[in-house]
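Can't paste images in this forum, so I'm doing it all in text. The chain is below; anyone willing to post the predicted structure tokens underneath?
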Amino acid sequence: MNGSLSSSKQSQLLLLRLLESRTPKVPSYPLFRRLCTEPNPPPPPPPQDEDSLITKAVQLLQAPENENSGSTQLHQLLFSSSSSSSSAGLFRQIARRLASSSQALKFFDYIQSNAPSQDLHALSSTFQAIFELASREPDWQEKLLELYRTSKERNVPLTINGATLLVRCWGRARMVDEVLGVVNELDPSLKNTHFCNVVIDVLFRLGCADYAHSMVDEMLQPNAECPPNDITGDIVFAALSRREWPGRTFNSEEIVGLVSKFGERGVLPDSFKLTQLITKLCRNRNIGHAWDVLHHVMKSGGAVEAVSCNALLTGLARDEDFERMNKLTAEMKQMDIQPNVVTFGILINRMCKSRLVDEALEVLEKMKGGSGGVSVEPDVIMYNTLIDGLCKVGRQEEGLSLMDQMRSNKCVPNTVTYNCLIDGFCKAGEIERAHELFDQMNRERVFPNVITLNTLVDGMCRHGRINSAVEFFNDRQSKGLKGNAVTYTTVINAFCNVNNIDKAMEFFNQMLKAGCTPDAIVYYTLISGLSQAGRMDDASCVVSKLKEAGFCLDTVCYNVLIGGFCKRRKLDKAYEMLKEMEQAGVKPDSVTYNILISYLSKTGSFTTAHTVMRKMIKEGLVPTVVTYGALIHAYCLNNKIDEAMKIFRDLSSASKVAPNTVIYNILIDSLCKNNDVELALSLMDDMKVKGVRPNITTYNAMFKGLREKNLLEKAFELMDRMVEQACNPDYITMEVLTEWLSAVGETGKLKKFVEGYEVSVSSG
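Text version of the structure:
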């Protein structure tokens, strides 16, 4: 062997020097080392087609390092004149078939180092394939970020498809900054409608509504390079119709504006999305804008179906806008939009809720009769709506007739049908008829539910048949129809109303044993009943259970408890409740203070009562006529008429609260009992001046005072005023006047008074 290098070794060294001089910054990957140190094999035969060329190139690139495959073969395959014309597509396809993004990146480096000329399009296309491979690998987020940085470092521009892929991937990973970075850095001349659609879809999902809206505005410009298409519309309309989504939401004006602008470009929402938009606007009480959206689509020639019109009709019905409901149904007819059973159901439902039952029945007849060429068979829901409407206006007999008509139309009544009728008869007090219907539904094997049970129990309790209600309830329970919180509340409330607290407590305990969780109303009902009955210990126990159940006392409940403790003369407990009330953040109202003022006044603690009243005013609460009435009544009870009259005068002059009949009656009664009839008569005159109407209590108090003074003429004048005001005497009036007038020989005038004639001397 001679000292000179063999020709093979010389070729290897020459190739290495060439590579180093061309790409000094490219890392020396094993693949490159292998390709650059292999001996020169004979040139391969030219491939038959592009696919076999790609396959051969992939084999060479993926061959083990110790396998002898010449770099000349790869160079010939990639850079021959026959392949250079389509190098971008060729390189991209080769990269796609490699096993990983790292192998594809090495291939990219080889191309960048060995290509006879730097074709940016080919390099960008190859990098696109690298992105595609990386996006399918486990640690794709980090790899894509690193590859994106690498592409920028090497000044390799993104292809439109590569940019689209990055936007999709980073959108899925919620990487907002990276998405916006790609959008801003992409060559504007490459952007197309498809790319813009992908971007706005991702931005909407990421909550970047402002960015998305800005891009949509650009697409909607008259000479936009990326005009919107149907896919753009689908994305935007879907975003507009969503009830909740991250980021800024669109207001109703923006929704109308976008629908109008898209319509001008021939892009309209389909029936489903149009319905969603209208429903959203109606739900937000923007009925006028919902009307505008529908009519924009109509005028633009969009496909409008009954379902979209139904959505708007529902909103109009909620607002009781019958004028526009009629206008829309007329437009449906003009545009040949066939109404369906839901359309008529909306009309009938709203009319019934507005108590326009006769008009609703007319709609039923028109739809059955095929008015306007449309014949729609009513369903069970529509019949139930009408029957319920009839029952709510007291026309339950007509409701029964409609149920018979329903059967004749082969529409079977269900539980709701019977519940409506039973409720109607219960509210009318016809409990027996309600029971007959209940028996009928059982015979027809229409199974009653808890609403049926509650309706009958409530009807019986309301009409004083509590024992029958309990008996019926127990009977249904034994047959498997269990009650709920409403059932027990109804019975408990009924027993509390008749002051049968023991039975109310019995049902409360039964409710707990049955595993039926009481709601706050049950607790409030019991607390009120026990407090009114003076059973404050039991009421306190129920309060404890209420708190254990996770409920809180409200102002009304605290007032009931404070009033109950005051009635039992337990002022310390009342103050304890007041303190707890304030600590719980429940602000006392005027009723709270009135209860305390009334109790303190009646017990003679006037100083404390006035202190409480000052605190009431300090808290920003204005004393009411009840407040002043409690003080006046207490002063009168304690025979302190002068103090009562002082408060009355202050009330009449300084306060904005006008005294009522009750306050006048308290003072007149007290004055008459203290023989100050003249002052009582002046109060009667004051009532007349201030337009406060006296009642029978006022007159009875005056007649008693006048009798003590034997002031007959004044009594006759008051008797005439009673006749004039149609204030009928009661047994107290007749007892006082009969005894007095009989004693003074004026029974004739008493007879005239009873017959409704004037009796005073001046009347002749």
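The mean pLDDT is 85. The chain is about 70% helix and 0% strand.
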